[in-house]
Amino acid sequence: MTDDRVQTLLQAETYWTTRAMREQGSRFYRALGEALEAADLGNRRRIYGVWTAELWDFYERGLRLEEAEREEAGGDSGEG
């Protein structure tokens, strides 16, 4: 299960995960999100491997942020 999550995280865009970390995380997780954003593939793999459960939580939060933003953008464009 952990390997599947690491692979999913590696294939996902980091933007939404790091955004969730910046907006909803403690100071530690905000800093970890900055490190993740700056990391190359090898270092991202290390970060994901060590902090899989925590980053999975922020990945899911990021998916919710993305969905909410899409819904908000979709709702605005339909009005007029």
Key traits:
about 80 residues, about 0% strand, 5 helices, mainly alpha
Model description:
The chain contains 5 helices and no strands. It is an all-alpha fold and 80 residues long. Helix 2 runs antiparallel to helix 3. It has one domain. The protein has helices at residues 2-11, 14-24, 27-38, 41-50, 52-77. The mean pLDDT is 92.
Continuous helix count = 5
Low-confidence runs of at least 5 consecutive residues: none
Shape: globular
N-C termini distance? 47 Å
Number of domains: 1
For the sheet with most strands, the description reads:
none
Mean pLDDT: 92
Strand proportion, as a percent range, falls in under 5%
Written as H for each helix and E for each strand, in order along the chain, the element string is HHHHH
Report the helical percentage: over 70%
Count of extended strands: 0
Structural class: mainly alpha
The rounded Rg comes to: 14 Å
State the gist of this model.
Helix content is 86%, strand content 0%. It is an all-alpha fold and 80 residues long.
Record the SSE blueprint:
Layout: H1 2-11, H2 14-24, H3 27-38, H4 41-50, H5 52-77
Helix pairs in contact: 1-4, 1-5, 2-3, 2-5
